[in-house]
Amino acid sequence: MLDEPLVQELLNEVVQAEENLSIVECLINGTNTDEEIAEKTEIKLNIVRKILYKLYDSGLASYKRSKDPETQWYTYSWEFDAAGVNNQIKEKSASKIADLKENLELEENNMFFVCPEGHSRFAFDQASELGFICPECGNESTFQENDSIINRIKEEIANYEKAYSFSIPENAK
Ligand SMILES: [Zn+2]
């Protein structure tokens, strides 16, 4: 599941350093105590703990606490939360799709005028108020064909829609 670009993106935001992804990998593969994870990954125990709590904080991992009846010590058994990952990917995709659709509507319903030197880009009404002059350099704004922009937005929407329907198996190992 770590091959999935969206999963990677999400996890990278949480674990920050790429080498810490091996902690997540270990967890996914069923190693569930901080000490065992530290041993397997050769990452310092305090870093492993920090990352586990970050995952917990982000809703991507959960833990169960139990008391050893003999030593009276608590042990924490950690689990990766695939459902949490799926939910977050869905949420992110949904909000991206909403933004892109708004953008698409704007592009489809307007004519755009741009500065030949790339300083500014205005929809017709605003460009006309400015007398079709770039406020920055005073050059005349020219009509810009925006088909390629529209196509790019449509493509991006399609990608996020694919991501939205994506989900990793919740018992994935
Ligand atoms: Zn300009």
From TrEMBL:
Occurrences of domain HTH TFE/IIEalpha-type (ranges): 1-86
PROSITE patterns in alphabetical order: HTH_TFE_IIE (PS51344)
Gene Ontology MF: a single term: DNA binding
Keyword list, A-Z: DNA-binding, Transcription, Transcription regulation
Keyword Membrane carried by entry: no
InterPro entries hit by this protein: TF_E_archaea, TFE, TFIIE/TFIIEa_HTH, TFIIE_asu, TFIIEa/SarR/Rpc3_HTH_dom, WH-like_DNA-bd_sf, WH_DNA-bd_sf
Biological processes per GO annotation: regulation of DNA-templated transcription; transcription initiation at RNA polymerase II promoter
Alphabetized SUPFAM superfamilies for the sequence: Winged helix' DNA-binding domain
Family to which the UniProt record says this protein belongs: Belongs to the TFE family.
Free-text function comment from the UniProt entry: Transcription factor that plays a role in the activation of archaeal genes transcribed by RNA polymerase. Facilitates transcription initiation by enhancing TATA-box recognition by TATA-box-binding protein (Tbp), and transcription factor B (Tfb) and RNA polymerase recruitment. Not absolutely required for transcription in vitro, but particularly important in cases where Tbp or Tfb function is not optimal. It dynamically alters the nucleic acid-binding properties of RNA polymerases by stabilizing the initiation complex and destabilizing elongation complexes.
Domain remark in the UniProt entry: The winged helix domain is involved in binding to DNA in the preinitiation complex.
Assembly, per entry: Monomer. Interaction with RNA polymerase subunits RpoF and RpoE is necessary for Tfe stimulatory transcription activity. Able to interact with Tbp and RNA polymerase in the absence of DNA promoter. Interacts both with the preinitiation and elongation complexes.
HAMAP family reported for this sequence: TFE_arch
Name of the protein in its database record: Transcription factor E
Top-level taxonomy: Archaea, Methanobacteriati, Methanobacteriota, Methanomada group, Methanobacteria
